[in-house]
Amino acid sequence: MADIRLEGVGHSYDGGQTWALKPMTWTWQSSRAYALLGPSGCGKTTLLNIISGLLTPTVGRIFFDDRDVTDVPTSGRNIAQVFQFPVLYEEMSVYDNLAFPLRNRKYPKKEIDERVRQVSRLLGLDHLLGRRSRRLDAGRQQIVSLGRGLVRSQVAAVLLDEPLTVVDPALKWTLRSKLKEIHRDTGHTLVYVTHDQTEALTFADEVVVLNDGAIVQAGEPAELFLSPAHEFVGHFIGSPGMNMLPAEIVGDVVRVGQADVGLVHADDADELPPGPVRIGVRPEFVEITGAGRSPGVPATVTGIDRMGAYDLVHARVGEHPLIARTEAGAPYQLDSVEFLHFPADRTFLFRDEVRCGSL
Ligand code: ATP
C-alpha cells in the first residue's frame, strides 16, 4: 500500500487543445477508501487509467510514495483494476477466474484457496464457484470481476471503475457494505469511480468530486452534503440537489425579492461587497412556516410528491423553482402561498459558483 501522489498531472487527447484532465496536484492516501464522483465525461476514467499506467499523462509526474512511476508500465505498478465491463475467462469456472490473479503471481496454493473462498463468501459467490463464468448473468459476471480485483491482499491500490452498474439495485446495497468489510480487512488504498452519488456517499471514507476535468471539492460524505464549496457540489450531491435562488446583499442583510432572509456571514475575513449572489439551501433544510413569521419568503406551491417516508413540496419563488422536503402528509394546497424560512448555517451564498459565505 502506498500514497499515490499526482504532481501537476493532466491529460489531453488532442495535443493540448482541450484537457480531459486539467493539470492537478493531489494525493490518494494509503489505505483510504475514496469515491471518485462526477458526471459522464468529467475525466474519471482518464484519471484512473493514469494511476494504473494504462495512460501516460501529457504533463506531470506520478509517485507511489517516493517512487516516480510516471514511465513505469501497468505491469510494474502492482495495481488491481476492475473495469465497468467484466473481463473474465468465459470458459473458466468462477473459482479459477478468482484464483487467476493469485496464481499468476505465484501465491502459495493454500493462500489462494483461502483468499478465493473468503472473497467469494463475502460477495455471495460461494455457491457458484464451480460454474463456468459464461453461464452467469451479467450482474453476477460483474461481481466475479469485482472479486478478481479484490482477491489479492498485497497491492499498491485497487481501482474500481463503475464496478456495479448492471448489478440488481437491491443487491448493490449489500455489496457496498461487503466491499467496506473487505476494505477494512485488507486496508487497500481504494479508488471507486462512480457517477452515482448514493454509491459514493455510502461507501467512501472520502469523496472526490470531479467536474470538467478538475477536482471541485474533496471531503467526507457529510462535509460535502452539509458544506458544499461550489454550486456544482450542491447540485450534484443530494437527491434532489441543493436549491439555488438569486438574491442580493444589501448592507449586512441578504434579500430574496423583497424579503430579508438573514445576515451576511462571509467565509473569509473580508466583508462581502453588496450586489447579486445566489443562495443555496438543501430541500431538507427549507422550513415552511406560517404567514407572519419573519423573515419569510413567499412561495407558491406548485406540486407535492408523496414519497412514502417523506413529501417533496415543489414551489415557485418569483420565477424560480424550489423544493422543500417535509414530513409525510404535508398539508399544503396547490397554488397556495406559503412562507419559507432558510436556517442560518445551512444556507450558503455563492458568487461565480464558488461559495463565499452563509447566513
Ligand atoms: P464516463 O462516466 O462517461 O465514463 P468519465 O468521467 O470516465 O466519463 P473520461 O472517459 O475520462 O470521462 O473522458 C473525459 C473526456 O475525455 C471526455 O470528454 C471524453 O470524450 C474524452 N476522451 C476520453 N477518452 C478519449 C479518447 N481515447 N480520445 C479522445 N477523447 C477521449
Automatic annotation (TrEMBL):
Keyword Nucleotide-binding: yes
Residues annotated as domain ABC transporter: 4-237
InterPro entries documented for this protein: AAA+_ATPase, ABC_transporter-like_ATP-bd, ABC_transpr_FbpC, ABC_transpr_MalK/UgpC-like, Mo/tungstate-bd_C_term_dom, NA-bd_OB-fold, OB_MalK-like, P-loop_NTPase
Entry keywords, A to Z: ATP-binding, Cell membrane, Membrane, Nucleotide-binding, Transport
Gene Ontology molecular functions: ATP binding
One Pfam family this sequence matches: OB_MalK
Protein name, UniProt field: Glycerol transport system ATP-binding protein
Species name: Nonomuraea angiospora
